């Protein structure tokens, strides 16, 4: 547990305004943070009687190809259990051959005994990463915020292409504010039971989406890949919670449409591993999709969390920046404990982390507020670092549609700046693996 995650924070501008309404806003922000105080150390929670079933696959199934329906048929015939006939069952066909279902103990035993079944795993609650928030009543003071400036997003020729960046980023998260003027949401789908749309009712997904892809239009903020197409894939609910099976369902959907999706961002984690999740990510990467994920906010080795420990994703740690430049001396206002141009105190680390990006006091879009869709919030966490890199990955793909996930990741790492770079570097990385800082100037 990291103290930073439970401390209160206030927006300097809200404080400066000083009237009671603003103070009440600041106080609301504080209570929201306190509400989230336990998330960083929350133990993984099993979902009772809910399981993820992975079927054996015949060798040679192409990545992204539908799972073998014959196996489903044989399961239905052998066990008189047809996963396709139940309303609470999710069938995976593209990133995984299998399904998630609520099973009685007898059904579970029967399924485990079927020779077509590879594994039966407990389904678990998974959550977006906790973030510290400061409400912002007015829009941003300038469109180019320090985070995007620090990675030189404004200097990228691809980012400045007229009409927006020609790439698609799927945000697997709490949804996206679908009508926010900064966000080019072209597709939305909910994987949360009982929730019909991917409208963001939490705020986290909208902020992540805007960091990656807010439009360059003289309004609001600008993302690393301005105007890139966004897919809002809502797998987490209004409290930021979902399940591995909902996340896998979103990955399955991405894999089904792998020809249309360039990059996926996942700013979420759990301490319990899922082999089905690992398999689904691998198969989706095989289908050509680059996955960018947050390292996590527990100030520990990212290897103990999923999906940040997956060998084929780009895992991103967070640094602090207050002025869009290296050299220090400009601590951001919203986090008194964080120091300009140093590794964020809450960020996970370790050899799985391949890249660093700004993740402290990042101002960008949030969920709608009643009828007002033009809303902004300041958030801190590796959740905010990851979408800077996802935007970078979108720039690589906009320039080279044929780039494989490995090529996309290697390009980002090769173009990044060394920690000891005299102009762009940062200090305080706690491990022996000095991941470089994202830089997209030449992308
Ligand atoms: Ca904008
Ligand atoms: Ca700085
Ligand atoms: Ca490191």
Task: Explain the overall architecture.
The chain folds into 2 domains: 3-42 and 127-415, 3-Layer(aba) Sandwich (Rossmann fold), CATH 3.40.50.200; 48-124, Peptidase S8 propeptide/proteinase inhibitor I9 (Alpha-Beta Plaits). The strands form 3 sheets. It has a 7-stranded parallel β-sheet with strand order 7-8-6-10-12-13-14, with helices on both faces. Strands 1, 2, 3, 4, 9 and 11 form a 6-stranded antiparallel β-sheet that branches. It has 10 helices and 16 strands. Strand 2 and strand 3 (98-102) form a beta hairpin. The radius of gyration is 21 Å and the shape is globular. It is an alpha/beta fold. Residues 1-42 have low confidence and may be disordered. Bound molecules: calcium ion (3 copies). One calcium ion (CA) is lined by residues 143, 182, 214-217, 219-222.
Which SSEs are present, and which pair or pack?
Blueprint: H1 12-17, H2 20-35, E1 46-55, H3 69-79, E2 90-92, E3 98-102, H4 105-112, E4 117-128, E5 132-136, H5 146-150, E6 168-173, E7 185-190, H6 204-213, E8 229-234, E9 241-243, H7 244-256, E10 263-266, E11 268-269, H8 275-286, E12 290-294, E13 314-319, E14 353-358, E15 362-365, E16 376-380, H9 382-399, H10 405-415
Parallel strand pairs: 6-8, 6-10, 7-8, 10-12, 12-13, 13-14
Antiparallel strand pairs: 1-3, 1-4, 2-3, 4-9, 4-11, 5-16, 15-16
The protein binds calcium ion (3 copies).
One calcium ion binds near residues 349, 353, 429, 431 and 434.
Please supply descriptive tags for the structure shown above.
6-stranded antiparallel β-sheet; disordered N terminus; 7-stranded parallel β-sheet; globular; binds calcium ion; single chain; Alpha-Beta Plaits; Rossmann fold; alpha/beta; 2 domains; 443 residues; 10 helices
